[in-house]
Amino acid sequence: MLETTRRPDRHRYRVNPFELSDEDFRYKYRFSKRFGEKIVGIVREDLVHDPRGCPLSPEIQVVCALRNWARHEIQDDTANLHSVSQPVVSRTCKKVAEILSRNSREFIKMPTTLNEQQETIRKFRSIANFPTVIGAIDCTHIRVKKVNADGGQLYINRKGFSSINVQVVCDADLKIMDIVTRWRGSVHDSRIFRECRLKQRFEAGAFSGILLGDSGYPCTPYLFTPLLNPTTPQEERYNRSHIRTRNTVERCFGLWKQRFRCLLRGMFGDIETAKKQLLHVLYYTIWPST
């Protein structure tokens, strides 16, 4: 008879990461403890877990996802740090991303009241004296793994790698106010804006200001682009003011990708999960200075 050796039980000892000092917490998770507590408070009610065995607390689930996204490390390393298995980290990241994507509209939104719009316009004007600007718009490519299904070639962008083309509108404080994450890498920036709901809201007169975009967008009454061949001093001043003001969205992309290294180096899960995880910019939009 064949005898099998039973693997000895391993006792995992989990500690509450929020018992760390502020300095150690920031070193491990790249955000302050206060910021992590804010995220836990948002998703706690939705992180329903199985009471059998040794369920993960909402605190550990959040920090697992946060560390995996912010540091973009191997999931095995995140699992070992928190005394869980790699499949648990994978499922936790997906679950937290889904919850954040459902709650994203509470934090990622355009200014609606007249006072909010006027305050946004005032902040943009203080940059380079460009009047009535309510947002800066642009797109950025987030690398994803090669898609082998039908239509996978449509994810290949002009630079030759598979990506999702993400449209973002931010304010003068680099806070993201609108985001579209569903388009494949081969789609042009102007088409994404042409078919998004934000364009319909501008055409319906929902906002008192305008957007600033680069030359890849068409120039419209609510979306101003730079002049391609300025010939007068007035046109040159317009371009300089436009570039300095619109530069906020470029800085927003840089800060966003540095804080979440998975966006800088690429997201290698399945496409639908990657699109949901892109909405974890919710972390960044709650407290941009964190």
From TrEMBL:
Transposase-derived protein that may have nuclease activity. Does not have transposase activity. Residues 137-267 form the DDE Tnp4 domain. Its main location: cytoplasm. Its cofactor is a divalent metal cation. It is found in: Cytoplasm; Nucleus. One of its GO terms (molecular function) is nuclease activity. InterPro entries: HARBI1-like, HARBI1_animal, HARBI1_dom. It comes from Parnassius mnemosyne. One of its GO terms (cellular component) is cytoplasm. This is Putative nuclease HARBI1. The keyword Metal-binding applies. Belongs to the HARBI1 family. The keyword Phosphoprotein does not apply.
